[in-house]
Amino acid sequence: MTMDFASRVERVEPSATLAISNKAAELEAEGKDVVDLSVGEPDFDTPENIKQAAKDALDAGHTGYTPSNGIPELKEALVEKLHDDGLTQYGTENLIVTPGGKQALYEIFQTLIDDGDEVALLDPAWVSYEAMAKLAGGSLTRVDTAAHDFQLAGALDDLADAVSDDTELLVVNSPGNPHGAVYSDAALEGVRDLAVEHDITVISDEIYKEITYDGVEATSLGTLDGMEDRTITLNGFSKAYSMTGWRLGYFAAPEALVSQAGKVHSHSVSCAVNFVQHAGIEALTNTDEAVEEMRQAFAERREFLIGLFEEHGVHVPEPQGAFYMMPEVAPDGDDTEWCDAAISDAQVATVPGSAFGTPGYARISYANSKERLQEAVDRLAEHDLI
Ligand SMILES: Cc1ncc(COP(=O)(O)O)c(C=O)c1O
User: Fold this and answer.
1) Domain named Aminotransferase class I/classII large: which ranges (predicted)?
2) Which among 119, 175, 300, 353 would be 20 to 30 A from 323, CA to CA?
3) Cα(102) to centroid(ligand 1), Å
C-alpha cells in the first residue's frame, strides 16, 4: 500500500540535532567513547524537593485530568513569577499550561499562522521554530545576526529591511538557543518600534531566562511600552529546573489568543500532566538555591570552555546566557563537514550551525563536566579540527 502524506509534513525536515544524537548512539553501541556536546538539556538531576512534590501529588491522588489550561494553584504561582519579572499585564486568564514549551509554541503557531503568512526569525534560530512555522503553512523571512556576534542590536537595520506590514509573527529568543546571546534593552526597543510600526505579534521565548552570567539580566520583551498586548511570553521548566523529561511549559498572552489557542490545546493534549503541574508549583516557589547552583556550574564551564577555544585561536562570540556557545569552526569551509569529522574522527558530537541558519559555526552545549569539555577540545585539536 502507498500512503499519501500530507504536504505540511513533507515540507518539514527531520531534526538535525536528532540526527547527531543517533550517530552518537551508533558509535557508543560500537563501544566508542563519545563526548556528547550536542544535547540541549542540563546534565543535572531534577532537584530533590521537586521530585518529592510529584510523589506527594501522586500519593494525594492527583492523577486525573485537570482543567485544560492548568490547575489554578500553578497558574497563580506563574502569575506571581510573571509579575516579579515585570509582566504585570498577565492574570490567570492569560495562561495556558502545556506539556513542555514546545507544545506551547506549536499551539501558538497553529493559532496565528495561515497558509502563506510571513514569520520572521533571527538566525541562528532554534530548529523547531522553522518546522513549526512550516507545519502551519507559514513562509519564512530570516535575519542573520552572526556578523554581529549574535547581538541583535547590530542587526536591527537588517531586521527593519526584512519585516513589513505583511509580517505576521516575529520570534525573539533571549537568552537564545543556539547562540547564548542576551539581547540588550536597546535591541528590544528596536524590536518594539518595528513591531508597533508594522503591527507584528512577537513571541518572546524566555525558556533560558534564569540562566545568565556576569550579572546580565534578560529583559522580558512584554515589559516594554507598546508590547504588553502584542507579546506572547513563553517559558517552561525544562532548563531552569532541569526538568526536561517532565514536560511542563506555559505561555502567557492576550485573552483573545488564549481563547483560540485553547481549542488547539484541549483538542490535542487536553491538559499537562496533573502531578507534574503540582511539582511545578514547588519548582517555582522553593528552588532558588538549586537553580543558583546549576547556574554557577554553567558559568564556570562557560569560562573554562571559552578559554580552551581561545588557546586554539578559535573565535567564539561570548554567550551571556543559556548553556550553548557557537565557535566559528569553519570560517571558509563547510560546518556540516566539520561536525561530521568531529563525530566520526574525534568522537565529539556537536551540531552544525547551518541547522540553525548560520553556516561556518557549530553549536556546543557545555552542559557537561569540565573533564569532558577538556577531553573534547583535546580530541578536536589532535584531529586538527581546531
Ligand atoms: C529555545 C527553546 N525554546 C523552547 C524549547 C522547548 O523546551 P521544552 O519543550 O522542553 O519546554 C527549547 C528546548 O530545547 C528551546 O531550546
Assistant:
1) 32-380
2) 119
3) 6
**What pLDDT shows up at residue 39?**
85
Mean pLDDT of the chain: 96
Distance CA 187, CA 342 (A): 35
Identify residue 24 by its one-letter amino acid code.
A
Nearest partner of 96 among 106, 88, 85, judged by Cα: 106
Q: How far is the CA of 301 from the centre of ligand 1 (A)?
A: 21
Question: Cβ(207) to ligand 1 under 6 A?
Answer: yes
The pLDDT value recorded for residue 333 is: 81
Given the CA of residue 101, which atom of ligand 1 is nearest to it? 11
- The per-residue pLDDT for range 129-142, each reduced to its tens digit, is 999 999 999 999 99
**In angstroms, what is the span from residue 207 Cα to ligand 1's centroid?**
7
Closest ligand 1 atom to Cα of 244:
10
Which residue range is the domain that position 329 belongs to?
9-46+289-382
Angle at the Cα of 131 from the Cα atoms of 228 and 242, rounded to 5 degrees: 70
Rounded to whole angstroms, the Cα distance separating 65 from 75 reads: 16
Domain assignment present for 4? no
In a domain, 57, yes or no: no
Q: 98 CA to middle of ligand 1, Å?
A: 12
The reply to whether ligand 1 has any atom less than 6 angstroms from the CB of 205 is yes
**In a shared domain, residues 300 and 360:** yes
Average pLDDT over residues 150-173: 98
Name the closest-CA residue to atom 16, ligand 1: 177
List, in order, residues 6 or more apart from 296 with CB less than 8 Å away.
none
Query: Residue 88 sits in a domain of what CATH number?
Result: 3.40.640.10
Query: Amino acid identity, residue 78?
Result: L
Q: b/e for 80-118, b at 16 or more Cβ within 10 A? A: eebeebebebbeeebbbbbbbbbbbbbbbbbbbbeeebb
Q: 52 lies in a domain?
A: no
Q: How far is the centre of ligand 1, averaged over its atoms, from the C-alpha of 153 (Å)?
A: 24
